[in-house]
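Lecture notes, unit on binding sites. The following record was shown on slide 14. It pairs a sequence with phosphoenolpyruvate.
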Amino acid sequence: MTDRQALIAGNWKMNGLTAAALAEAKALAEKLAANPHKAQVAICPPAILLAPLAASLSGSGILLGGQDCHAKASGAHTGDIAAEQLKDAGAACVIVGHSERRADHGETDAIVRAKAEAAHRAGLIAIVCLGETLAQRDGGETLKVVASQLRGSLPDDANAANTVIAYEPVWAIGTGRTPTLEQVAEVHALIRRELRARFDDGAGFRILYGGSVKPDNAAQLMAVADVDGALVGGASLKAGDFWPIIAAKG
Ligand code: PEP
């Protein structure tokens, strides 16, 4: 059996102004310092908040992450941010292929794969998101869709240290709806099989569940086999909601 340290990552999306963000992060750091916890904790704020958060969270053990990166290291790409720049601002990881990026910006598996490669090149952990839409779930295509996204979105240089998978059913994100525990188990088992088949250390990759994780459902969801933590959106914005999710892992 492989020991995988749980990761609980907060995706703040396009939320937060400096003063309030620093206050929430400080409150979270204080909770973590005062209470033993098993999980590794990450916050992925808007990129402009990475540097101030890195300064204020120094020594807290909280990892910082970007929410996206460009595939190139530099160049004429107005508005984009390179993985190297995220790293320079204090990030240790970056989310790639979030369903909101796939939907809003037309990101394909090939684009997500290039972004994951960029994350690795910069020395960041890539948190690669996958998940089916409601129509795909209702059409019985979930396993086929997730397997195909996984194969297309993961670069060959992925390994258990530089890559984390986040299974996030699109219909569960921000909706208050979650799959049944059996549905979560079925998809995570598929992802684990695929990882084992392709990578020597496939048993060691962490696979997070994401989609309406809240303090009252976190323990159940994270107790499912092959669920190695959570990617949390709305409930990560307030330390008072995020801490109980972290505590749910022990
Ligand atoms: C997300 O955006 O990655 C997410 C899981 O959001 P929420 O927890 O709000 O459903």
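Take-home: The first helix runs from residue 18 to 34.
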